[in-house]
């Protein structure tokens, strides 16, 4: 008794996958140099924008600078006021102010 080989109905070997193209780093992950005013909060080393925002939030929480009645509002101390240019800012305005201090 012999068995015939099974035929595949039009199936071929899987196509080889192309190697993924090297992704260029996004603008968010590009290391930027903070201004002296911002460096007083996050340090003077070059950091990606995402790390700068994280470190600023750490500073805000550590020094309890969020308005307790409105958590979206940040009440700046002297160091943050130098970066923001004002005594109060919303969390949505923060990135606009940080952008002015990153090169």
Task: Give a topology summary.
Elements: E1 31-32, H1 36-42, E2 47-48, H2 49-62, E3 73-75, H3 78-84, E4 88-90, H4 91-99
Antiparallel strand pairs: 1-2, 3-4
Helix pairs in contact: 1-3
Strand percentage lies at 5-15%
Taking the alpha carbons of the first and last residues, their distance comes to 79 Å
**Strand line-up in the sheet with most strands:** 1-2
CATH topology of the domain at 28-99, anyone? MDM2
So, the CATH homologous superfamily of the domain at 28-99? Answer: SWIB/MDM2 domain
Count of DSSP H/I helices: 4
- Average pLDDT score: 87
Tell me about this structure.
With 103 residues, this protein is of the alpha+beta class. The protein has a domain at 28-99: SWIB/MDM2 domain (MDM2, Orthogonal Bundle), CATH 1.10.245.10. Helix content is 36%, strand content 10%. It is built from 4 helices and 4 strands, in the order E-H-E-H-E-H-E-H. It has helices at residues 36-42, 49-62, 78-84, 91-99; strands at residues 31-32, 47-48, 73-75, 88-90. It has a two-stranded antiparallel ribbon. Strands 3-4 form a two-stranded antiparallel ribbon. Helix 1 (36-42) crosses helix 3. It is elongated, with a radius of gyration of 26 Å. The model has no long low-confidence stretch (mean pLDDT 87).
Task: Write a compact overview of the structure shown.
With 103 residues, this protein is an alpha+beta fold.
Relevant terms:
single chain, 103 residues, alpha+beta, MDM2, two-stranded antiparallel ribbon
């Amino acid at each position: 008794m012999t068995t015939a080989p099974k035929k595949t109905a039009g199936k071929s070997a899987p196509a080889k996958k192309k190697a993924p193209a090297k992704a260029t780093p996004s603008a968010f992950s590009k290391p930027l140099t903070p201004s002296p005013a911002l460096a007083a909060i996050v340090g003077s080393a070059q950091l990606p924008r995402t790390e700068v925002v994280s470190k600023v939030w750490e500073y805000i929480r550590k020094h309890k600078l969020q308005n307790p009645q409105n958590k979206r509002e940040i009440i700046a101390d002297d160091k943050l006021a130098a970066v923001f240019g004002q005594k109060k800012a919303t969390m949505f305005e923060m990135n606009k102010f940080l952008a002015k201090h990153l090169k």
